[in-house]
Amino acid sequence: MKQTLSREQREKILLYGREHGISEACRKFSVSRTIYYRWKKRFENEGHEGLKDRIRNFVPVNKIKQEIEERLFEKVAEHPDYGPLSLKWLLEDEHIYISASGVYNILVRHGLNKRPEREKFARRYRKTRPIPRGFEPRHGELWLCWTDIRKNLMEDKILYQYSILDVSSGVSCSRLYNDNDTAHALDLLVGLAVPMGKELLMKPATIITPDDRIYRSVKSKEKHPYMNTLKQMGVTQLKWDIDFKDFKELSEDFSTRSLEYLISNSTDAGSVNDLRSLLQDFLREFNLKTALTCGPGKGSTPLDNVRRISDQKITLPLWAYLDRKY
């Protein structure tokens, strides 16, 4: 019988079975012999109390662990546009193995199997940000990376300015290139930022990058040189989005200052190399002499912030790095 029976009804069926036989009782009340014998055993061992409803309190062996579901929810919040298969691949990167159908079943159970619902969930989930609002990172641990398109520096030529900035101190590095390419972003990171960071006692733990193919892979399983480099460095990569608008002022201030400097001093610049030299001049001025107007290091120059935060009197040959040829 599909409906739930009361204790009295079960007793009635057991009594009927004793009087008319078990087979007849099971046929008449549409009860399987297995169920009948289960009730019979419980009645013999526990009496009337044994026929009461029992709440099954067990976890199926194939139930997904809660921590795995939580990790899946984090991936959904990061990539609400991804379907079950892509989410499965993301989990595999962290050695969490679950089938695409298993991912789909979890999404269905929580009402996240449709993209609009996942996008709503992502917006809610971001309230618990990977970096809290008002967070002040330790010296050299959080870097911002981005690219600005420069259309007004040379006639009929588009240039790309790649920049990296340490949130804590404001120390920045930047380079101009002719095109938009991951190799240039890596050149700035590995060829300039990391060596300069070592001299400044900096070791990035987290780098925030744009959601762009220059910095990130669109497909979850695609090997991406920038992402792989950060992984090898042991650096966590986060994606620029609405969660990090409180850091946006730092990058925008640097971009604006550098552009204004280049425009105001580019009258005699006849080539891209001339503009690159101007940008190096700006960087020396910015890092060594310019008081910041925003961010944790507001009111001091980036180098003074390094000295204060690291509690050391550091005299650094920044120009040795900033003058390095491309």
Brief account:
The protein has 326 residues and is α/β, with parallel strands linked by helices.
Task: Name the features.
49% helix, 326 residues, Nucleotidyltransferase, domain 5, 5-stranded mixed sheet, alpha/beta
- Structural class of the secondary elements? alpha/beta
| Poorly predicted segments | 56-62, 318-322
Strand order of the largest sheet: 3-2-1-4-5
Main CATH class of the largest domain: Alpha Beta
Strand elements, count: 5
Compute the number of helices. Answer: 13
Order of helices and strands: HHHHHHHEEEHEHEHHHH
Biggest sheet details: 5 strands, mixed
Helix content: 40-55%
Q: What characteristic shape results from the CA principal axes?
A: elongated
User: Over all CA atoms, what is the radius of gyration?
Assistant: 32 Å
CATH architecture name of the largest domain: 2-Layer Sandwich
Mean pLDDT: 83
- Please tell me the total number of domains: 3
The CATH topology name of the largest domain reads Nucleotidyltransferase, domain 5
State the separation between the terminal residues, measured CA to CA: 80 Å
